[in-house]
Design a protein that fits this description.
mainly alpha; 3 strands; 2 domains
Length: 361
């Protein structure tokens, strides 16, 4: 007998066991392979988190030095594809260019594919950002970490420890987050045995939407429009009157504040000349939460990761059109981990729909 109760957003549906991460939406807690987020980012950078995620599943798993080396080698390999990438992506946004770039990687490439995709994304991103400034792409440096090298390739020189640490914290913070829309998409593709590159490409396409990884650019647009925290209340009332969704707020799982928001807010505070901007953003955030309480009573909506992502990436001088692409650089580590887990134990993911169209007479 076909079950006909439709759950269009799959709320609360559990489709797999995972050892990767746990999102506790009531407590506002994220655990990645046994480590609570604040401890995770205090003790590990991006490569360390990737090594942790890949433990027991892939080359370099558990070994931060091996991951750092593997990713650096993969960046050098990916740099060879940059002329092809640039020729194929004229006029595209950074995330659209990454979509093309991942699509160009062959399944036959001899490098371990998790290294290949996680090495290619920062190289491709830096190349398209340099093109936008009229600059030639800068070759990767084998001696650096992903965060150090990405900032260097974008800026033309090393950014300084405080900036490199800021980006590293961001990449580590967003590396994995349960069965979010992009991770689930990647796992669906992995479940068909299409391979890691195709799975990560599919995940990137899901991340691109404004309801998922496309939110932080619009957060800055909102802050720009508000301009002065004294105008925030009127701005929010007007926005709710028009049915606007507030970017950087609300979450399917978190019913309280997203714990990543505090980690990223603290990271912004370590960067130079951010005190004024941070104070303004904090006031606007309080105004947004008060407006959500007024206009959406009983809905339990709070700040999500994207609000302070926007502030952090702005302070790192990343152009806002590149925010979603940069999210992909960090999240790719988690996507790969989930592909491995799916390939190891999962069955093909194949739900059912409830047919409501006409039937033959
Ligand atoms: N602003 C205003 N109202 C909101 C918001 C928001 N940011 N988020 C949810 N609501 C309201 C909805 O309008 C709805 O109200 P209603 O019942 O009166 O119609 C109610 O809260 C429930 O919202 P849903 O959209 O059903 O919640 P869902 O779990 O499906 O969506 C989502 C979650 C997509 C994140 C949503 O909160 C949203 O659009 N937020 C803004 C975009 C954003 O910041 N995305 C990044 C999320 S974090 C990440 O993906 C990395």
């Amino acid at each position: 007998m076909l079950q006909t109760r439709v759950n269009s957003g799959l709320d609360g549906i559990i489709v797999a066991d995972t050892v990767m991460s746990e999102v506790d939406g009531e407590e506002g807690r994220l655990v990645v392979r046994g480590h609570a987020l604040p401890e995770l980012v205090a003790t590990r950078g991006f490569e360390g988190v990737a090594a942790l995620l890949w433990t027991d599943y892939a080359t370099g798993g558990g070994d931060e030095a091996a991951v750092t080396k593997g990713l650096a080698k993969a960046r050098v390999r990916a740099f060879k594809d940059v002329p092809k990438l640039l020729a194929a992506t004229e006029g595209l946004t950074p995330v659209e260019a990454l979509r093309v770039g991942l699509g160009m990687l062959p399944d036959s490439d001899p490098l371990p594919h998790h290294f290949l995709v996680c090495g290619a994304l920062p190289v491709f991103l830096a190349a398209v950002l340099n093109r936008a400034k009229g600059l030639s792409p800068l070759a990767p440096d084998l001696a650096l970490t992903t965060a150090q090298d990405l900032l260097r390739m974008i800026r033309g020189q090393r950014a300084g420890e405080v900036f490199e640490k800021g980006l590293d914290t961001y990449l580590a913070t967003v590396a994995d987050h349960g069965f979010n829309a992009s991770t689930f998409t990647g796992r669906v593709v992995a479940s068909t045995q299409a391979g890691l590159i195709s799975s990560v490409l599919a995940a990137l396409c899901a991340l691109k939407g404004p309801l998922h990884g496309g939110a932080p650019g619009p957060v800055l647009d909102m802050l720009d429009e508000i301009g002065d925290s004294a105008r925030a209340e009127a701005w929010f009332d007007d926005a709710f009157g028009k049915g606007t969704t507030l970017m950087g707020f609300g979450h399917r799982i978190y019913k309280v504040r997203d714990p990543r928001a505090d980690v990223l807010k603290a990271a912004v505070a370590t960067l130079p000349a951010t005190a004024g901007r941070l104070a303004f953003a904090s006031e606007v955030e309080q105004g947004a939460i008060a407006a959500l309480r007024r206009h959406k009573p009983g809905r339990r909506l709070d700040t999500n990761v994207e609000y302070y992502t926007a502030l952090l990436l702005e302070a790192l001088e990343i152009p806002r059109e590149a925010f979603t692409a940069l999210f992909a650089v960090g999240r790719a580590a988690g996507w790969c981990a989930h592909v491995f887990e799916q390939e190891k134990g999962g069955r093909i993911i194949r739900p059912q729909s409830n047919y409501v169209g006409p039937r033959p007479a």
